[in-house]
Amino acid sequence: MDWFFVIEEKKHMKMDRLEMLALATSSAVFVVALVYWGIQIQGVRELLEMAYG
Amino acid sequence: MELLPFFEWAETSLLGSIGKTYGGVYAIGQSLHLMALALLGGTVLLTDLRLLNVVLRDVPSDQVIENAHKWFKVALIIIMATGIFMAAAVATRMYYNSFYWAKMTALLAGIVFVFAIKRPLLKRPHKEINPLVLKSVAMASLVIWFSVAATGRWIGFS
Question: Per the CB < 8 Å rule, is A26 touching B144?
């Protein structure tokens, strides 16, 4: 878990424009992936329920 | 813009005809595609897990990322060349497959993410980059390339 504590120590480092952009893009990727894979998993679950009850 | 005529043309083109007619040539293309996928996956795992401090912790991350990026580019070129060849043989079927479009979207997102965000950021000395940003970029990269691989495999089962 030491990588986590490194984040804790340095999270107050000032971020420039590229770093902000990278953080914003990464966050957008997480949200889109969560929604997309959530919908796909739900679709598979519904299909399995229809097939096997 | 209607893309179906392009896909129909691709299937009847020389490339599409070779892929459909000669099973051996298609198999070689597919093998190269899979090997390049393994190489690309390897470089992605290596760089992103290094940024997350999971692997190769005794090697500077700048050095790992710099060396792996060359092989990432090689793998990407082979994947795209063999991918076009493989898709041409079954282009019309691909056009109607939603996972094909999901894979292409994820692949495009991955390429843009690497060359517009990740690469310019990681050209800097990593010690100067906020660790939260480094970790977020590594996680996002893993998510994107996982999505490329998963939707790509899903094509075969849909």
Answer: no
